[in-house]
Amino acid sequence: MSRDESSPGTAFEDILPVLRSKEETRRYYDKIAKVYDILSERAEQPMRDKGLALLDPQPGERHLEIGFGTGHSLVALARAVGPDGRVFGIDLSPEMEKRARDLLEREGLSSRVELTCGDALELPYEDASFDGVFSSFTLELFPTEEIPHVLAECRRVLRVGGRLSVVALSKEGRQGLMMKAYEWTHRHFPNLLDCRPIHVRRAIESAGFEIVRAELDHMWVAVEIVLARRPAS
To answer: Helix, strand, or coil here: 114?
Structure first.
């Protein structure tokens, strides 16, 4: 997907519903926190690294990660911003928060990072307080009607010109047998596949962001990696 390519249609057409409540999602991630890296790290890490590279955090900056999971991106962000920068993270799962805190402690980076257990629908941060917001494999977990509100919160907490980098499963690109099988499994066994592909770039554009770059990659299904900026208007 090129930088100047536009996508037809609405941001939320043909998106499958989320089939678990917020509380069920929290309990699920609490349950799998200890084995999450074994289940997902090999597939997600290359995509996450591409999103972080697009975000390009700089020394002294302030960054927020939404859905930090076991904390690997927090470590990368904390190293990038250095001792004069600051990193914040919010995640729904208390057990994921514990795992992330343990990792940051082992890496000697706890003093640069402040974690919150909560819902990104209402970010507990001041307006225009961040240089960047990062999210990987999290936006597609929100119910469709909540995605615009989460993105509006991201825009609110970013300074003018601040960057948003999102990595998420995508409805763009090839829609072959693998996608059909994935979505069938999501419909019938949401406890196995809770994420569902969404139109990432379209959703971000609809939230009033300026798209800087959008890439389409693939794991078992397509993944969009999108960098956007908060415009002045």
So the answer is: strand
Is residue 47 within 8 A of residue 225, CB to CB? The reply is yes
pTM over the 0.85 mark: yes
- What is the rounded distance in angstroms from the CA atom of residue 115 to the CA atom of residue 88? 6
The answer, yes or no, to whether residue 133 has pLDDT greater than 80, is yes
Q: Map tokens 């090839």 to a residue.
A: 174
For 64, residues 6+ apart whose C-beta sits below 8 A from its C-beta are 87, 88, 89, 90, 123, 125, 130, 132, 133, 134, 157
- Say which CATH topology domain 22-229 has: Rossmann fold (3.40.50)
For the CA atoms of 32, 122, 183, 97, what is the dihedral angle to 10 degrees? -10
| Domain locations in the chain as residue ranges | 22-229
pLDDT band for position 112 (cuts 50, 70, 90)? very high
- Give the long-range contacts of residues 18-23, CB within 8 A, separation 24 or more: 18/141, 18/142, 18/143, 18/144, 18/194, 18/196, 19/186, 19/187, 19/190, 19/194, 20/190, 20/191, 20/194, 22/92, 22/119
Please check whether residue 193 is in contact with residue 186, taking contact to mean a CB–CB distance below 8 angstroms.
yes
Tokens of 63: 């960054």
CA distances from residue 232 to 13, 93, 187 in whole angstroms, order as listed = 28, 34, 40
By three-state DSSP, how is residue 43 classified?
A: helix
Q: What is the pLDDT of residue 182?
A: 64
Angle between helix 22-32 and helix 36-55 axes, rounded to 10 deg: 110
